[in-house]
Design brief:
Blueprint lengths: L1 E5 L25 H5 L3 H10 L4 E5 H10 L15 E4 L5 H6 L5 E4 L2 H9 L5 E3 L3 H9 L5 E7 L18 E9 L5 E9 L8
Parallel strand pairs: 1-6, 2-3, 2-5, 3-4
Antiparallel strand pairs: 6-8, 7-8
C-alpha cells in the first residue's frame, strides 16, 4: 500500500483540485506546494517506489488513473505494461474494457483479491483507493506500507485508517524526512502487536 497522507490522516485528492471533490472536499492538490520545491530526496524516494508493479485499485482511483496515465506514460515508465486490477462490485468486464487502459482486469471483491495474493506473480501495489485500502487493512491483507506524510492538517477528507483495522505490528525498513518536512517511510508487517508496561 502506497499513500500520500496529511498529519491528520487525510489521503483524498493529493494531486490536484479536481481529482476528487466528493463531499465538497476543497483542498485537492495539497501535496503540490511540497513537490514544487526542488527536493532531491523526495524525487529519489518516488522514483524507487514508482518502479513497475501490478496495481490493485479501487474503482474511483482506477477511473482517475485511467483518464490520466495512458496520456502521460512517459512520467511513469512501465505503467502501460503492468496489470491493472480494479476492484468493483458494480462494474462489468465490459466497463473495464471501455476505459481503454491496457492490461486492465476486473476483480469483484475481496475473495478475488485473496486468490490473487495467493497466486504466484508480481508484487501488488495499492495506491490511493481509500475504500479498498480500509477493507484490506480490516482483513489483515496489507503486508507493506509506504507512507508519505506531509506537514499539513486538513480536517475533513477521506482516510484509510479506521477503527476496524486488524491489529498488527510493523517495522520501518527505511525512512527519511525531506528538507521541506515530508516524512517518507516504508513499513513491513512484523507480526502481532506486543504490549507491556512502561517503567
Amino acid at each position: 500500500m502506497q499513500e500520500f497522507l496529511t498529519l491528520d490522516g487525510v489521503m483524498q485528492a493529493p494531486g490536484g483540485p479536481d481529482e476528487d471533490r466528493a463531499d465538497g472536499f476543497a483542498y485537492g492538490g495539497w501535496t503540490a506546494p511540497h513537490f514544487a520545491a526542488a527536493d532531491a530526496a523526495a524525487g529519489a524516494f518516488m522514483a524507487e517506489h514508482l518502479k513497475p508493479a501490478d496495481l490493485l485499485l479501487g474503482r474511483r482511483t482506477y477511473e482517475i488513473f485511467a483518464a490520466y496515465w495512458p496520456h502521460h506514460a512517459d512520467q511513469w515508465p512501465g505503467i502501460e505494461d503492468v496489470t491493472k486490477y480494479v476492484v468493483s462490485s458494480t462494474w462489468t468486464p465490459e466497463l473495464v474494457a471501455a476505459s481503454g487502459w491496457s492490461n486492465s482486469v476486473l476483480l469483484t471483491g475481496l475473495d478475488d483479491v485473496k486468490a490473487l495474493r495467493e497466486a504466484a506473480g508480481s508484487e501488488l501495489k495499492v495506491i490511493g483507493s481509500s475504500v479498498l485500502a480500509r477493507s484490506l487493512l480490516a482483513h489483515g491483507m496489507v503486508d507493506e506500507m509506504v507512507l508519505m506524510t506531509f506537514p499539513v492538517v486538513l480536517g475533513p477528507g477521506k482516510r484509510i485508517f479506521a477503527d476496524d483495522a486488524a491489529p498488527a505490528a510493523f517495522v520501518m525498513t527505511s525512512g527519511q524526512v525531506t528538507p521541506n518536512g515530508v516524512t517518507l517511510a516504508h513499513y513491513r508487517k512484523s507480526g502481532a502487536v506486543a504490549t507491556g508496561t512502561v517503567g
